[in-house]
């Protein structure tokens, strides 16, 4: 966690990366600043996986593509409408769409567009349109997606700039295709970016989507998921120790953790409680060791626990 890592005392990402490369076999970093992951990756001699940054969330995109494949059986000739903030999840989704050649239309308020470099790069491979009109975006859409207006790294003030126009509600869903599905990476702020009737309604596939975030579900259509999964299993089979620091409440991390034998886990009291339950249920290895009482987390603005500044395997 941030208060247990030398980075919090001013150590450079480079030195942290080099040090961790001596201790562990892979790093999953869930961070605020994307540059920190880039620096870690540049200076590590071990694999570095982005578990979320303020700019990207590739693990979420993998889960989302798996969910779309599950429900629509294809990627091409589909249209995704993204409504709301052009945030980390949106940036990665655009890249995902470029890989699968899925059309995407992104409706955001002015000033909340996704990263323009991402749009430019992805546009070489698929159709990426930006608009400020959610109704235009959902027209003929096969998938409607949104996310919290206030991401974990955002200030609450940002949410005030969002307008109810960008809420996914029944009226908006009715303007999409009849067989449209609704997706949300969670956590959802019900009543803000999405209404109860949509997220709990028949078009919602959010729980299928949530399930995919546990990377233990391996799907041959998503080679990267398979790779991560197999890499962790291999390391584990070789009896190499993997240390997991922080934010275990997130499915991506839990999914990986379930593949690991005898991990050492640094946990705050809330996580420790959760881990004890997982151990009891046999979900994680009985010999999981815990370093407890990490107290540095505060409540995040998006209503979920704020992650420590970085998480490491
Ligand atoms: N965009 C949100 C949700 C990610 C799962 C965030 O970064 O907090």
User: Could you state the order of secondary-structure elements as H and E?
Assistant: HEHEHEHEHEHEHEHHHEHEHE
For the largest sheet, list the strands in their spatial order. 5-4-3-6-7
Rg, alpha carbons? 19 Å
Mean pLDDT across all residues, rounded?
78
- The rough form would be described as globular
Bound molecules: norvaline
Helix-strand category: alpha/beta
- What is the end-to-end distance? 11 Å
% residues in beta strands: 5-15%
Count every helix, treating DSSP H or I runs of 4 or more residues as helices: 12
Please give the number of β-strands: 10
The portion of residues assigned to helices is: 25-40%
Structure description:
The protein has 313 residues and is α/β, with parallel strands linked by helices. 35% of the residues lie in helices and 13% in strands. The protein is built from twelve helices and ten strands. The chain has helices at 13-23, 34-43, 58-72, 88-100, 116-123, 134-138, 170-173, 196-199, 206-212, 223-237, 251-257, 269-280, and strands spanning 27-30, 48-52, 79-83, 103-107, 128-131, 143-146, 181-184, 243-245, 264-266, 289-291. It is globular and about 55 Å long. Mean pLDDT is 78; it is low at 215-226, 245-249 and 294-313. Norvaline binds next to helix 4.
């Amino acid at each position: 966690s941030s208060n247990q890592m030398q980075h919090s005392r001013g150590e450079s990402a480079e030195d942290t990366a080099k040090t961790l490369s001596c201790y562990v076999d892979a790093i999953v970093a869930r961070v605020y600043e994307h540059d920190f992951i880039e620096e870690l990756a540049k200076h590590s001699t071990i694999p570095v996986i982005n578990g979320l940054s303020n700019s990207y969330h590739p693990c979420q995109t993998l889960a989302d593509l798996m969910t779309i494949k599950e429900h629509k059986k294809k990627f091409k000739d589909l249209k995704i409408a993204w409504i709301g903030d052009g945030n980390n999840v949106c940036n990665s989704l655009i890249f995902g769409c470029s890989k699968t050649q899925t059309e995407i239309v992104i409706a955001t308020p002015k000033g909340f567009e996704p990263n323009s470099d991402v749009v430019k790069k992805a546009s070489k491979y698929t159709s990426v349109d930006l608009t400020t009109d959610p109704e235009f975006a959902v027209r003929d859409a096969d998938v409607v997606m949104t996310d919290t207006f206030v991401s974990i790294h955002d200030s609450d003030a940002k949410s005030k700039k969002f307008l109810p126009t960008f809420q996914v509600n029944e009226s908006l869903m009715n303007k999409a295709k009849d067989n449209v599905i609704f997706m949300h990476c969670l956590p959802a702020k019900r009543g803000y970016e999405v209404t109860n009737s949509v997220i709990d309604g028949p078009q919602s596939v959010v729980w299928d989507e949530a399930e995919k975030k546990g990377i233990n579900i391996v799907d041959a259509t998503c080679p990267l998921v398979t790779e991560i999964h197999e890499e962790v299993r291999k390391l584990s089979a070789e009896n190499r120790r993997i240390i997991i620091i922080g934010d275990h409440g997130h499915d991506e991390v839990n999914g990986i953790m379930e593949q690991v034998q005898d991990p050492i886990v640094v946990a705050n009291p809330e996580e420790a409680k959760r881990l004890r339950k997982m151990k009891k249920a046999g979900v994680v290895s009985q010999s999981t060791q815990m370093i407890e009482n990490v107290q540095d987390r505060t409540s995040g603005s998006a209503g979920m626990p704020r992650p420590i500044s970085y998480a490491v395997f």
